[in-house]
Specification:
With about 80 residues, the chain is mainly β. About 10% of the residues lie in helices and about 60% in strands. The chain has one domain. The radius of gyration is 13 Å and the shape is elongated. About 10% of the residues are buried.
Length: about 80
């Protein structure tokens, strides 16, 4: 699903870190080593057909690598 983040991400929380991440080996292989964390937060997003919706986003991030694999987990409204 294609989307664009409008504004900033709020209510950012860590879901998992280090070995608790199921995709850790894949992340290290694709993007390199780092202190990987799985994060979640809320944001306004513009969907592919132009509609603005509030959504819960999930992504992985590591220091020096940045945010990777961002996806919409669920629409909040």
């Amino acid at each position: 699903m294609f989307f664009q983040i409008v504004g900033e991400i709020t209510n950012i929380r860590t879901i998992a870190a280090g070995r608790r991440i199921r995709q850790l080996a894949r992340l290290k292989k694709l993007y390199g080593p780092g202190r990987w964390r799985k994060m979640k937060g809320d944001a306004m997003v513009r969907l592919a057909h132009g509609q603005l919706r509030s959504a819960e986003l999930h992504w992985y991030e590591a220091h020096g690598v940045g945010k990777r694999g961002m996806k919409i987990k669920k629409l909040l409204d």
